Amino acid sequence: MSLPARFSDLKREIAAAYPDFEERATRAWIEIIEQLKEVTADISNHGVDYIPQVNYSDLETLSKEDIDKIKRRGCVVIRDIVNDTEAKDWKTSLEDYITANPGLDGYPANNPIFYEIFWTKAQLQARSHPNILSTTLWLTNLYHIKGESVEGMDLSNPLSYADRFRIRRPGPQHTNILPPHVDGPTIERWEDPALREYFSEILSGNWHLHDPYEMGGRIKARNSHYERPNQASIFRSFQGWLALSETGPTEGTIQFFPSVALANAYIILRPFFRPLPSADATSIMDAKNWEFDISSPDFPGIHPLDGGYIGPRPTPALHPHLRLETTMTSVPKMRPGDAVFWHCDVIHAVEEEHKGQGDSAVIFIPAVPQTPYNQAYVEKQRETFLSGRRPPDMPQGKCAEFPEGKREDHYVGFGTLDDISLAGRKAMGFPVGVVQG
Ligand SMILES: [Fe+2]
């Protein structure tokens, strides 16, 4: 479906805002396509080994080379953040919750993989585990901020975002649940002035100077202009999940396009170019078969949904130079207590089929810096926990039976304040008295 006509005005507005836009963007486009040839070959040749892996206990002593690699690739597996027994106990606790409360909402509705449940004991304990909080803090501190600090901002204080859990059984996946996509802002990447600032080096043609770890523009951004349910409104420096069971490649695990700055450069400039009508599947790979064009309102990979937009969802047809068929790289085998994290701009997907034997269970836990917007969000989120409702960013399940939205607090095994560590309470925005116990 096409985007509204006003989005061609948006392209014209961007083109007018940057000096010599056509010339500079075209030069950048050619360079990016050239660079992608090299990087995509490197990714495909290395496969699983391209995803950096480190031990939790080594986080504070990693070399600059290791850290640079993690930043460049935009993703990392961190081993043994919590011990196996604790992680396995959380899986058992989630399974007991599902058994004790038949008919929980989830997706797909008839046999859920993702549960619309946010406040189980296991989730509260995992999110507030001191090692999880110190890991997310470490990840956030891979970022930096240019110039003066912003009032209300504290990068030494991790916040807690309530997200779902997933238990996936072996077998094929309901089609197309999670094809390659980027989380968070969709059309806002171009529409929001602060996000344009974040991407300004790309838009001005200096794409190689784009730093996805400079959070100045990011913290001022309005990530969700249309308030579409399921679109995170906060700034998560990294999204991630903690494994509660073993899962490896071909077992329905997550995949990445592990080159964050380059993917950003390509995705952000893609809407300003189109292939020549004469280009075929082979010649489309050559930059000279593309031309600058801002007449169309379309932003390839961005699609209307539920009153807002979804995407970027790059595809081999729309974004051929990413060579997604061979570059979407599965994470290596994960064991209970390991976690994987990916920068908020990283293209990721979930393998369509789970060919393994056992359930693959994970709790989603992002890294959330304390910024003024994020702090206000976690305080609203805290109130939803206290009243047993779903977090503000999540679909509320409003219907005739539940006009205010669905609640969780009548379920057997609903978590309480006692399941949240003191540090976790602070991360949830509880006042000092509650934090001190
Ligand atoms: Fe995602």
Automatic annotation (TrEMBL):
Q: Which InterPro entries match?
A: Gig2-like (IPR010856), IPNS-like_sf (IPR027443)
Question: Which positions carry the signal peptide feature in this UniProt record?
Answer: none
Q: What is this protein called?
A: DUF1479-domain-containing protein
UniProt cross-references to Gene3D superfamilies, sorted A to Z:
B-lactam Antibiotic, Isopenicillin N Synthase, Chain
Species whose genome carries this gene = Collybia nuda
